[in-house]
Specification:
Helix content: 10-25%
Radius of gyration: 21 Å
Largest sheet: 9 strands, antiparallel
Number of helices: 9
Oligomer: single chain
Strand content: 25-35%
Shape: globular
């Protein structure tokens, strides 16, 4: 995957199974196992992201010992031959994080580009990629794909991995350390400042447990207000999965039903600005970092850019605070528009979220993602 600008072209040839009756489903129990499955096309292995496998297609099992020789063919009777339940990995194949020296436009020169995936037979298969500053431990953006699926494994709870990045992430995110930091910088404790390790590429982007586990990396996290992470930000994440699961197929636009299936979506997630809080004594606005006053910045905003090969594109912008932003601040970075009719944002949920005109948003805030997201 050399250039994300052209990555979507390959996906246009992805064989999508719009009718589950003409496909096989990987059983739910295997989604939650240690199994990873691979596709095999033109002599090249790729990751099987979905639990849906088209009739006539063969998938292979990837375990800690490598690719297993037996292929599992989805037959015309919608049954795998041999049965998938006949082979279960005793240990998973370990993921790899690769630092990319020759970057593309998705990552500015001041940041580092990391790809997360699997090396199989000297070929790297990418799950997602993140732009991250290893010096200030500041997240920039994350890019991944989410595929049509029927079911997903439960969210796992593995330990977070620093992948060799120095910085003491665990202590920085720990509640007492966070409050001590805020007390020092602001002159008072901040009872609402409880930060989650907010996933950027979310675990829900993947259907299999072993793929979900790869998202628990500090280069894939930001300090996110707990209420925001579990409020409107989660609502937007759920909406993305509902779109690709087919909840909004065949939309009606201007009283005309449009035949459209969102089989594969590209999602670009990023952080903007550094959150500021008022000092208790002098009312100065102080930029908030979780480490050393200059590392692990707390973002002011998060965004999702969601796009489909049809040309449909959406941008959702979320304020990383339990309070409301001022309208002037919103207007500086977003031209508000109506949200997708399936996205129901509750005013009672934390994390003020607005939908933005996509091309205007990208041009104003992240011009390097033009043609990428």
């Amino acid at each position: 995957m050399h250039d994300l600008k052209y990555f979507g072209v390959f996906l246009s040839f992805f064989v999508f199974v719009g009718n589950v009756s003409s496909s096989c489903l990987i059983p739910k129990n295997l989604l939650a196992s240690k199994n990873i499955y691979l596709t095999h096309n033109n002599g090249i292995f790729g990751i099987q992201f979905s639990d849906i496998v088209a009739n006539g297609h063969t998938i292979y099992l990837l375990c800690n010992g490598g690719v297993q020789p037996t292929g599992f063919l989805c037959q015309s009777n919608n049954v795998f031959n041999p049965s998938l339940n006949s082979a279960i990995c005793s240990a998973p194949f370990e993921p790899t994080v690769v630092g990319v020296r020759k970057k593309d436009a998705s990552c500015p020169n001041s940041y580092h580009l990391y790809k997360v995936g699997f090396y199989v037979q000297r070929t790297f298969m990418e799950l997602y990629r993140n732009c991250f500053d290893g010096n200030t431990l500041a997240f920039q953006n994350s890019i991944y794909k989410v595929y049509r699926h029927e079911n997903t494994a439960p969210r796992p709870t593995p330990p977070w991995n620093a992948d060799g990045l120095s910085g003491g992430f665990d202590n920085a995110y720990e509640g007492r350390a966070t409050q001590a930091c805020l007390l020092t910088n602001l002159g008072a404790t901040q009872p609402q400042c409880k930060f989650d390790r907010g996933h950027m590429t979310p675990a829900s982007a993947f259907m299999f447990t072993e793929l979900k586990k790869t998202t628990f990396k500090y280069l894939n996290a930001i300090p996110q207000y707990r209420g925001v992470n579990r409020g409107n930000w989660k609502t937007v994440e759920t909406w993305v999965n509902n779109v690709v699961k087919g909840h909004f197929d065949n939309p009606v636009i201007n009283n005309v039903q449009i035949r459209r299936t969102y089989d594969v979506l590209k999602v670009c997630i990023g952080a903007l600005g550094v959150h500021r809080l008022k000092h208790n004594n002098n009312n100065n606005m102080i930029s908030i970092f979780l480490l050393d006053n200059n590392k692990i910045p707390v973002p002011e905003w998060m965004y999702k850019i969601v796009s489909h090969l049809s040309g449909d594109k959406w941008v959702m912008l979320t304020y990383n605070d339990v309070n409301l932003p001022n309208q002037q601040g919103i207007n500086q970075i977003c031209q508000p528009i109506d949200c997708h009719p399936g996205l129901h944002l509750s005013p009672r949920d934390v994390g003020y979220t607005v939908c933005c005109e996509p091309y205007n948003f990208i041009r104003r805030n992240v011009p390097h993602l033009t043609g990428v997201c």
